[in-house]
């Protein structure tokens, strides 16, 4: 492989067509594509030997790979990335796929959690991959906060939101907390939280503690700082990820190596490891993003691809994401518009219900 990353614009027309046909053939069949297959419907009259030479050049560039001696070629991760960035033709959303997704939003009687679960089922069904739906945090303004001591190393924080929603969260308070320090911490928070959502609260609290350090006991200040960190804790975040359609990945596996990678993926999904990064991936760019193989830092061990799009609330703030995960030979041109359309509908649902 050369040190310089190849560029699709630097290829001549014949190399570009060979490369495109190998990638498209692999995505469709999952099998290596040989030179004789390409000669049958190539746009110009060329011999199998000529095509083999072009494929060897593409292999030298690191874009194709030959899994077996005398076999056809398959695209490498670098080749798939170059195809997605330079040659991918994104189609229109299929009418049947649109109808299937639309049906999940058909009833106004269902709560948001139920609708998003149905969205996950529909998304895995139409894409034949596993779907990931990161549901939004409760973003209503807070009305009241209270700390309750349960044991020496266990406390409960009760969060009452302006819309009537109540959440109870158990956490480990800093050592030495007393009923008095808990009351003081709650009083301090209630004086500054009105009208602020949880996501806004961290910055407000940090600013107020810095400005009013003399007014609040050290123990109470420690509880406030420790408690707010835990309100945005990893456990709460992991419960927000809906995963559907894992069986689709197993049925698409053709080798023991594939099965091992899928098992690694399932382990990641079960542990929800680093799942907070899922939304970070979506937020790094506008619209649908595609992560191929090891580019996907969440599930890199499984060698999977992730197609993900964020969705926004009425204030145009990103609050969640939807995505599809599957083998690297995903039909990207078909799945991109599906994920994009689903994300838009989820955003509209959240905005309408807020």
Folded structure, characterized:
- This is Heat-inducible transcription repressor HrcA.
- InterPro entries: GAF-like_dom_sf (IPR029016), HrcA (IPR002571), HrcA_C (IPR021153), WH-like_DNA-bd_sf (IPR036388), WH_DNA-bd_sf (IPR036390), WHTH_transcript_rep_HrcA_IDD (IPR023120).
- Belongs to the HrcA family.
- GO terms for molecular function: DNA binding.
- This protein is of the alpha+beta class and 354 residues long.
- The chain folds into three domains: 8-86, Orthogonal Bundle (Arc Repressor Mutant, subunit A), CATH 1.10.10.10; 95-136 and 240-353, 2-Layer Sandwich (Beta-Lactamase); 142-236, 2-Layer Sandwich (Enolase-like, domain 1).
- The protein is built from 14 helices and ten strands.
- The protein has helices spanning 13-29, 35-40, 48-60, 77-86, 95-103, 112-127, 179-193, 198-211, 218-231, 234-238, 246-251, 256-271, 276-283, 332-353, and strands at 64-65, 74-75, 130-134, 142-151, 154-161, 166-171, 241-244, 289-292, 304-312, 318-327.
- α5 (95-103) runs parallel beside α14 (332-353).
- The chain is elongated.
């Amino acid at each position: 492989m050369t040190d310089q990353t190849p560029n699709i614009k630097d290829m001549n027309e014949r190399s570009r067509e060979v490369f495109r046909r190998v990638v498209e053939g692999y995505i469709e069949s999952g099998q290596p594509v040989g030179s004789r297959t390409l000669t049958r419907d190539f746009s110009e009259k060329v011999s199998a030997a000529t095509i083999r030479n072009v494929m060897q050049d593409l292999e030298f560039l690191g874009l194709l790979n030959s899994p077996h001696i005398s076999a056809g070629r398959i695209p490498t991760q670098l080749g798939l990335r170059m195809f997605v960035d330079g040659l991918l033709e994104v189609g229109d959303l299929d009418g049947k796929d649109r109808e299937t997704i639309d049906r999940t939003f058909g009833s106004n009687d269902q709560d948001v959690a139920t609708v998003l679960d149905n969205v996950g089922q529909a998304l895995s069904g139409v894409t034949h991959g596993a779907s990931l739906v990161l549901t939004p945090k409760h973003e209503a303004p807070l009305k009241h906060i209270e700390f309750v001591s349960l044991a020496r190393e266990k406390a409960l924080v009760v969060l009452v939101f302006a819309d009537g929603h109540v959440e109870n969260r158990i956490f480990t308070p800093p050592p030495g907390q007393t009923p008095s320090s808990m009351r003081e911490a709650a009083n301090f928070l209630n004086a500054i939280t009105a009208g602020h959502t949880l996501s806004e609260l961290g910055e407000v609290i940090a600013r107020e503690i810095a400005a009013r350090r003399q007014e609040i006991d050290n123990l109470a200040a420690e509880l406030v700082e420790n408690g707010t960190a835990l309100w945005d804790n990893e456990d709460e975040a992991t419960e927000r990820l809906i995963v559907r359609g894992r069986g689709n990945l197993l049925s698409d596996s053709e080798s023991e190596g594939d099965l091992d990678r899928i098992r690694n993926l399932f382990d990641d999904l079960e542990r929800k490891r680093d799942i907070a990064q899922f939304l970070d991936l979506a937020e790094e760019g506008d619209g649908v993003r595609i992560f191929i193989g090891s580019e996907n830092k969440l599930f890199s061990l499984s060698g999977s691809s992730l197609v993900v799009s964020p969705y926004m609330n009425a204030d145009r703030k990103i609050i969640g994401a939807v995505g599809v995960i599957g083998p690297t030979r995903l039909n990207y041109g078909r799945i991109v518009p599906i994920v994009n359309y689903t994300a838009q509908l989820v955003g509209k649902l959240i905005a309408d219900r807020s």
